[in-house]
Amino acid sequence: MKAEGVFIDSVGVFLPDWVSAEQGVADGLYDEEVYKASGLTGTHVAEDLPALDMAVTAARTALERAGLDPGDIESHIHSGVYHQGPDGSYPPAYILRELGVGNVPSLHIRQGCNGMLAALEIAVGQITGAAEVETALLTTAQNFSTPLIDRWRGFGDSYILADGAAAAVVGAGSGFAELRAINSGTLPELEKWHRGDESLLPPRDGTRAEVAVAERAALFNEREMPLAETVERIGEFDLSIIHRTLVDADLNASDLARVIPINQDGRMIEFSVLAPLGLPMSRSSWDFGRSVGHVGAADLVISLDHLIRAGELAPGDHVLLLSQGPGWISSSAILTITDRPTW
Fold this sequence. Notes:
The strands form 2 sheets. This protein has a 9-stranded mixed beta sheet with strand order 5-4-6-7-1-8-11-10-9, sandwiched between helices. Strands 2-3 form a two-stranded antiparallel sheet. With 343 residues, it is α/β, with parallel strands linked by helices. Helices cover 34% and strands 21% of the residues. It has 2 domains: 7-179, Peroxisomal Thiolase, Chain A, domain 1 (3-Layer(aba) Sandwich); 180-337, Thiolase/Chalcone synthase (Peroxisomal Thiolase, Chain A, domain 1, 3-Layer(aba) Sandwich), CATH 3.40.47.10. It is globular, with a radius of gyration of 19 Å. The chain has helices at 21-26, 32-38, 51-66, 91-99, 115-128, 191-195, 213-223, 227-248, 266-277, 286-289, 299-309; strands at 7-14, 17-20, 42-45, 75-79, 106-109, 135-142, 164-171, 177-186, 256-260, 318-325, 329-337. It contains 11 helices and 11 strands. A hairpin with a 3-residue loop joins strand 10 and strand 11 (329-337).
């Protein structure tokens, strides 16, 4: 989908205390062989700080950087990977109340680590369509500090889960980056890869089981589809989304100054994304992202914020953002940097 007149005005990030992967190994939480092979160097742990409070902090930063008051927000879209509050509550309303935003439309989307680009795609429709939204606030946050999730091993060897939050102000006026194109898709034959054989019914025994995504995936690969075939299908599917976005943006892969993927094992990024695009790893954000951990849907904004503040992006640079989620869902977007923000 080609986008016109949609800008990223500002972003905000919140990351709690950092814990090194080396410390995780020393504490018996992380496997030393995986640590040495993956290149991942640390994560962020929030402990008792709720995801929604981190989202509020990130949103305040984004609003301050944009020079906006809460009353300027016309739409809010929030995404979360894990627990965002008690069942039956509405997380976006908490964020809006804390920010002092009044009566505006809000959405809570659950696309896992793909949530921020999904929110951006919705915002494009709101800004360019009948709603005629001028300014939208996108937020995402996660706190994986629970006995029900093993942040070091529970999602496989390619990730260390991290806590944190990110926000973006998207609008129709101007900003430091213009959205050129965005696309998404779903590969439903891999839906069971993240669900395993678990029931679709609510828990019946009054307790919640540990979230063991790696075990579900292993079961799927054992019974339904070999891992090699799964990886091949994912790679082809993700690249098809990327190529569609490049075409819509009237760009070639060689035009990209940077590629920002989710934070994972660098070998996965190189094998599935950079090498097929004919780009070196130096064009990715991995060298920074490997120290952050996988903050769900916040990864892309966290890395974009870092590259802008570090002066590693300049006006005219084209940036590819890509993320995935269970289902299998995949999204990609291309931004063109238009200005160096004062922040």
